Every structure is written in structure tokens, then in C-alpha cells.
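Hi support team,

I've been running sequence recovery on a batch of backbones for a student project. Most finish fine, but this one hangs at about 90% for roughly twenty minutes before it completes. I'm not sure whether the input is malformed or the queue is just slow. I've pasted the C-alpha cells below so you can try to reproduce it. Let me know if you need the job ID as well.

Thanks,
M.K.
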């Protein structure tokens, strides 16, 4: 079964959040090798982790580390999530606040954060928690703004985000074009490429999207 999953994510449909969720669950339920499971999660997140609806895979990764009481790794995952414009970014922010207030702070924060708080003479536990919260809140609001810029595009995309023999409607095709142009204008190469890869699942029969992708790559 594992060989089938591997072929699916390597050759068939690598850009599928659901498939990576099933694969990671399959391995984590059967393997005692923690690092092997982490490597698989990281492989999946490298490919689909910035997708607007990648929350199921992030949730599984968080759950995996939480189950092992590895607060430092869970904290690091939360910080990565807070930089990504995901559909449920506001929910993650609320969950992060609960997490921050329910686990030992010294078991989570980075050495750099601890050194910075020491330098600023942030001494009490409550003040240190408030410092972390204020620092990450700035990240959250910046990411929330980016999420809101993409929300209308994604609302239309999610109506048909899989391949189907039926033709897509004109509005859906135009929405993909506008979304691609928006991301190209933002200038983040990795986000643009990943959006093209997503686009070419439902739009694989439309030559104009293939040509647009080729032209984009050629201009780099």
C-alpha cells in the first residue's frame, strides 16, 4: 500500500492536500520512526503547505507533535502557519493563543526569542507571554491581510478544484486567469508556480493555461 501512495504523490497527483493527508496518516499510524514520519510531513508541506486549503495537513502535523508533547516543535509549526495565507488562519491564531497560555513557555520559544526578551529586560512569565503574543500578532495581521486579498479568488476556485470531463464555466476560467495575474504581480516565484500547478489540475485541457505557464517560466 505504501508503494501505491508513493507513486501517487510522486507521479500521479503530487499537488493534492487530501492525498498527502492520507499518506502521512497511513505512515504515522504504522511507523515507530518519528523522524521518518516528520520527513514525510515535510515533503508534503513543501509541495502543498502554502495552498489556501492546506489546513488538514497542517492539522495532522500539529496533532502528531502534540501527541508526543513536543511543545517546541508544535510552537515552531504554529509560527510557520502564521506566515501562510490559509483559509483558516484566524482559527489558527486563536488556537495559538490557547496553546501559548497552556504550555510551559520555556519549552516552546526559540533561543533567539529568549535572548531578545532578556535584552529587553522582559522578566516575568506573564510579561514574556505578552511579548510573544504581541510579536506574533503582528505576523498574524499581516498574513490575514494577504489571506483576504486571495479570499474572493479562492471562493471561486474551490467550487471546482479537481479535474472533471465537463468544461469549466467562463467565470471560473476568468477567475483562474485573474488569480494567476494577481500572484504574478506579487512577485513570489514559489507561490506563482504552486498556483499554476493547482490551476493545471482542473484546467489541464485548456491550452491557454499551459502556454501562460510556459511564458511565465521563460520570463524568469
Amino acid at each position: 500500500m505504501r508503494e501505491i501512495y508513493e507513486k501517487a504523490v510522486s507521479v500521479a497527483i503530487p499537488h493534492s492536500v487530501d492525498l498527502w493527508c492520507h499518506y502521512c496518516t497511513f505512515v504515522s499510524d504504522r511507523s515507530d520512526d518519528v523522524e521518518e514520519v516528520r520527513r514525510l510531513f515535510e515533503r508534503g508541506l513543501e509541495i502543498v503547505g502554502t495552498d489556501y486549503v492546506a489546513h488538514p495537513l497542517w492539522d495532522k502535523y500539529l496533532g502528531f507533535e502534540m501527541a508526543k508533547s513536543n511543545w517546541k516543535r508544535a510552537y515552531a509549526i504554529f509560527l510557520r502557519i502564521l506566515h501562510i495565507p490559509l483559509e483558516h488562519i484566524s482559527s489558527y491564531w486563536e488556537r495559538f493563543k490557547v496553546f501559548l497560555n497552556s504550555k510551559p513557555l520555556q519549552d516552546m520559544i526559540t533561543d533567539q526569542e529568549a535572548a531578545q526578551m532578556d535584552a529587553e529586560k522582559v522578566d516575568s512569565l506573564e510579561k514574556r507571554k505578552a511579548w510573544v503574543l504581541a510579536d506574533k500578532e503582528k505576523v498574524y495581521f499581516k498574513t490575514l491581510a494577504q489571506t483576504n486579498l486571495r479570499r474572493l479568488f479562492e471562493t471561486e476556485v474551490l467550487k471546482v478544484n479537481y479535474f472533471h470531463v465537463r468544461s469549466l464555466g467562463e467565470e471560473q476560467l476568468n477567475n483562474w486567469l485573474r488569480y494567476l495575474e494577481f500572484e504574478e504581480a506579487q512577485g513570489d516565484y514559489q507561490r506563482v508556480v504552486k498556483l499554476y500547478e493547482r490551476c493545471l489540475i482542473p484546467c489541464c485541457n485548456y491550452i491557454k493555461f499551459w502556454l501562460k505557464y510556459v511564458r511565465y517560466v521563460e520570463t524568469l
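--
Follow-up from support: It reproduced on our side and the slowdown came from queue contention, not your input. The longest helix spans residues 125-157. No action needed from you.
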